[in-house]
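Morning. Coffee machine broken again, so started the prediction first thing and wrote up yesterday's gels while waiting. Chain of 211 residues, entered below exactly as on the submission form.
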Amino acid sequence: MKTLAEKIKAARIVAVLSVNDKSAAVDLVKALSDGGIKAIELTLRTPNAFECASAIAENADGILLGIGTVLTPEQAVEAKKRGADFAVSPGCNPRVIDAAQNAGLPFAPGIMTPSEIEQALEHGCRLMKYFPAGTSGGMKHLESMSAPYKHLGISFIPLGGLKLANMGEYLSSPLVAAIGGSWIAPSKLIEARDWVSIRKNAEDAVANIGS
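Came back before lunch.
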């Protein structure tokens, strides 16, 4: 069985989504999947996010369902119940990591400093979310910060400030399992139910993976 890091690396792109309507969530994921996206991070930033997660898990085959903005142990447990394949958080909270692991949910905590990397490592995490990537120094910061830990087989999902123009810079690094971004399906396109534009954004991102 593949590890989470292996599955994420195979996907290369994680589309970050904020959606509140479960019927829209299913259509949204179909548009992304049709555009070649294989993994999503559904953020817990809307009142009905968990209902959307359940709808995606029940209706969207072949997509790796991640739940993001997991801030409490209870949310980690609920994410597992809703059918999530993995979860991520913006920060590195040991209580949340432990709850996810106890629930059998693969988890990638957020890091931005060496101390947070060490905290994640202490709790058995080898895949981490690098957030916010754009405002904390980008790849230059990630390469310098992670240098003492490379031999431990760690990898990262950079999020925050990622876009079509700079995704190649991140994906060219062996430190990066995949990149995440909300530009593929921004809220304004989701609210307008503009699935054609979202699919086109997905296709453009996938086509740019090797560039």
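The chain has one domain: 4-207. Going to sketch it on the whiteboard this afternoon.
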